């Protein structure tokens, strides 16, 4: 006589067996595949950070994502889009918050859930300088900018 065991009981038995053989941590990745958390965007003064670094500016735009590569891809896309949209007002917002800055080239980062910050492959094209919350021209950009005067009579 053959006994038929439902597949759900086989899977439960398999997971319990793995847990007994490998310890309690063995099934955590299996049960946490669908874990979700916040997407957070941040701006750092460098494109290489260590675990203790905190962003100069950060925002959680309210996007809940999976705590995996799929969630990271969605979060990165959102943070890059936000960084591009805020380019026009970004310097004023940063200077208002930072008060003073000299030759700052902000780099965009993102993180999902409680994972570490990840560089979004985006750094400001131009440096930012602030003096007492006001945007000011940076010395490095003033040197590169030159004015050419052309006599209007010689140009046809």
Layout of SSEs?
Blueprint: H1 7-22, H2 28-31, E1 36-44, E2 57-59, E3 64-66, H3 69-85, H4 90-98, E4 101-104, E5 107-112, E6 118-123, E7 128-131, E8 134-136, H5 139-144
Antiparallel strand pairs: 1-2, 1-3, 1-5, 4-7, 5-6, 7-8
Q: Any overview of this molecule?
A:
- The chain is α+β, with helices and mostly antiparallel strands and 156 residues long.
- It is built from 5 helices and 8 strands.
- Helices cover 33% and strands 24% of the residues.
- The tally of strands reads 8
Category by helix and strand content: alpha+beta
What's the order of the H and E elements?
Answer: HHEEEHHEEEEEH
| Helical residues, percent | 25-40%
- Mind describing the biggest β-sheet? 5 strands, antiparallel
Q: Report low-confidence residues grouped into runs of 5 or more.
A: 1-31
What is the beta-strand fraction? Answer: 15-25%
Oligomeric state, counting identical vs distinct chains: single chain
**What gyration radius follows from the Cα positions, in whole Å?**
26 Å
Distance between the termini: 103 Å
Q: Quickly count the helices.
A: 5
What would the average pLDDT be, to the nearest integer?
Answer: 76
- Judging from the principal axes of the Cα atoms, what is the shape? elongated
């Amino acid at each position: 006589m053959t006994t038929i065991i439902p597949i759900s009981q086989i899977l439960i038995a398999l997971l319990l067996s793995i847990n007994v053989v490998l310890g309690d941590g063995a099934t955590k990745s299996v049960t946490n595949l669908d874990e979700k958390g916040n997407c957070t965007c941040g701006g750092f003064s460098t494109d290489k950070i260590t675990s203790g670094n905190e962003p100069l500016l950060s925002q959680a735009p309210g996007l809940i994502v999976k705590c995996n590569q799929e969630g990271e891809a969605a979060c990165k896309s959102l943070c890059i889009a936000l960084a591009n949209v805020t380019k026009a007002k970004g310097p004023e917002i940063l200077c208002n918050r930072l008060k003073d800055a000299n030759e700052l080239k902000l780099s965009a980062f993102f993180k999902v859930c409680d994972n570490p910050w990840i560089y979004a492959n985006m750094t400001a094209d131009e440096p930012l300088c602030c003096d007492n919350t006001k945007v000011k021209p940076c010395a490095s950009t003033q040197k590169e900018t030159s004015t050419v005067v052309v006599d209007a009579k010689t140009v046809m």
